[in-house]
Design goal:
With about 200 residues, the chain is an alpha/beta fold. Helix content is about 45%, strand content about 10%. It has a two-stranded parallel sheet with strand order 1-2. The radius of gyration is 21 Å and the shape is globular.
């Protein structure tokens, strides 16, 4: 696996000669070590060069802040709606597959999707929140460990067993159908996966 080069914000290679070097210690002092780690992994494909942007660091910082805030909404329950269960299993699969293929940016993107979904729930089951912490731990080990302990756990998060997904639960019970007229998209409808073609035509 070839590793892409992180360029300076001016698009050139970081060099003392150009005076465009980023000091990681300064970034850690301002945004935190986990924000730096998440941003570096989220910048783009691991094998492609990309320019550094301190401004974009705020996106990673906000993700961590939102994760922390979500802990206030966690309840001691292990059950959740089917829609949430499907997204959790899809996320476990996506993050695991992406880590193995060095697709770190898309792994984080998938966790952001799950985080967005959980923020919309009235309450978040503890088991679901813990799963998200386990998935994010390789990218943000410090904050996830702290949140893990705040939930009442006494173990080291990095020693926990990696979440396992159920293939059957990665398939949503619903699907989106695009409605086209003369080749142009006019609308979309959401139907149950087992809906017959005739029923879909009637709905359309």
């Amino acid at each position: 696996q070839n590793v892409g080069l992180i360029q300076a914000s001016d698009g050139r290679k970081m060099s003392k000669r150009y005076g465009n070097v980023i000091n990681p210690d300064d970034i850690v002092a301002t945004f935190g070590a986990d924000s730096l780690r998440v941003y570096e992994m989220f910048m783009g494909p691991f094998d492609q060069s990309i320019a550094w942007s301190t401004d974009n660091m705020m996106g990673a910082r906000r993700m961590i802040e939102r994760l922390w805030k979500l802990s206030n909404n966690v309840v001691d329950a292990n059950t959740h709606a089917t829609e949430t269960e499907v997204l959790v299993h899809q996320t476990i699969k996506k993050v695991g597959d992406d880590i193995e293929s060095f697709g770190f940016n898309t792994a984080i993107a998938q966790m952001m999707i799950l985080l967005n979904h959980l923020e919309k729930l009235p309450k978040v089951p503890k088991a679901t929140y813990e799963t998200l912490l386990k998935l994010l731990a390789p990218f943000a080990p410090h904050v996830t460990q702290e949140l893990w302990v705040m939930l009442g756990n006494t173990s080291e998060l990095y020693r926990e067993v990696w979440p396992v997904y159920d293939t059957a639960k990665t398939i949503s019970a619903k699907m989106v159908i695009a409605l086209q007229i003369n080749g142009k998209l006019r609308d979309t409808i959401e139907v149950l996966r087992e809906t017959s073609e005739e029923e879909i035509k009637k709905i359309a």
